[in-house]
Amino acid sequence: MMGTRLVLWLAMMLPGAAQALCSVVGTTPVAFGSISSIAVRTSSQASSTLNGGLSCTGSLLSLLTSNDHFYATVTSSKTGLVGPTGDVIGYTLYANNSTSYPITRGVQFDFARNGIIDALGLLGSVVPKTVPLYLRTTLGSNVAAGVYSETLSIFWSWDYCSGIGIGSICVGRDISSGTTTLTVTLTVANDCTITAPNIAFGSAPVVSAFAPVTGQTVNLACTKGSAYTVGLGDGQNAVSVGGRRRMVSGGNYLAYDIFKSAGTTRWGSVGSARRASTDAEVNPGNGLGTGSQVFNYNARVYTDQATPPAGTYLDSVVLDVGF
Question: Which UniProt keywords apply (predicted)?
Fold first, then answer.
């Protein structure tokens, strides 16, 4: 009879048992992609990885308890993403796809709390699943263009019930730890904020009566450390490339031009007709990122042309910045 009772007890025990085992694995890198310097400075950029280095499989018959833990400790020799000139882009890691659970560097974060592991279904799948991590950059990073990177060290340690017996009694625990690394990259692209007011010559009865438009400025706030040139296109109605610009009204034209600073050198779009960042009247040199560089110019209607018929004459000129 004792043997019969022992066989029946084992038959009832085995169907309720379950094993869920975890391990540290290689991570999937985080790539923010290519983002303009202005966007990096003015808005928080988000990215993520579906594999933060902890992989689990198996099946638990109940949710994690207060005795179960999944710790992640993130450390690095750097304080953020570091670029080619030493500039740093700060960012924060999060345990889920929100800003509710930030992960502080050097401090254990328990993924078993707040239902994070439970919500992932990490221990309820027969197919291995990995823990995702989420990242957001901090605002205000005024940085040069280039590739920014950091390698994080993530120490995972866990202690949880991996086997359930009769009456949901824990019959085994998975206790282990390991370290993996996570690479994070972001590419900063050159960009500018451009302020360029329209040019208005006003009205006049003859071409010789149009006064020059002086004191005009183009303001550029370009990526920190960027060397660039600024060009003004020939407009929509120029006689030829590099020729006189013309405003149009119906089939009639009024020739004019735009000149560098207060002089008579035409501001164009090709070669030496462009203006370099070092040629700015205010803050000459490479881009400042958060500060403006100012380029002065003047515009005039050519007086050696016949006065065209009355009308409203218009043209559109493209301003381009080349890095």
Answer: Signal
**What is the domain extent for residue 54?**
17-189
Q: Using alpha carbons, select from 257, 250, 246, 258 the residue that is nearest to residue 310.
A: 250
pLDDT, tens digit, for every residue of 266-288? Answer: 999 999 999 999 999 999 999 99
Percent of the chain residues past pLDDT 70, beyond the cut: 90
| 3-class SS of residue 129 | strand
Distances (CA, A) of 164 to 14, 22, 167, 227, 247: 10, 16, 8, 66, 84
Cβ-Cβ contacts under 8 Å for 239 (sequence gap 6 or more): 246, 255
Distance CA 162, CA 22 (A): 9
* 219 and 183 co-located in one domain: no
Sign of CA dihedral 234, 238, 244, 246: negative
User: Collapsing DSSP states into helix, strand and coil, what is residue 84?
Assistant: coil
Sign of the alpha-carbon dihedral angle for 302, 304, 307, 308: negative
- The two tokens of residue 174 are 């998975």
Q: Of 163, 189, 215, at which residue does a domain stop? A: 189
Q: What is the value of pTM for the model shown?
A: 0.86
Tell me the C-alpha distance between 305 and 122, whole Å.
79
- Token pair of 231, please? 């060009």
Q: Is residue 182 part of a domain?
A: yes
Hey, what amino acid is at 153?
A: S
Q: How far apart are CA 54 and CA 26, in angstroms?
A: 8
**Amino acid at residue number 130:** T
Spell out where 165-291 has E strands. Answer: 170-189, 192-195, 213-222, 229-232, 245-249, 252-260, 275-276
What digits encode the pLDDT tens for the residues 79-101?
A: 999 999 999 999 999 999 999 99
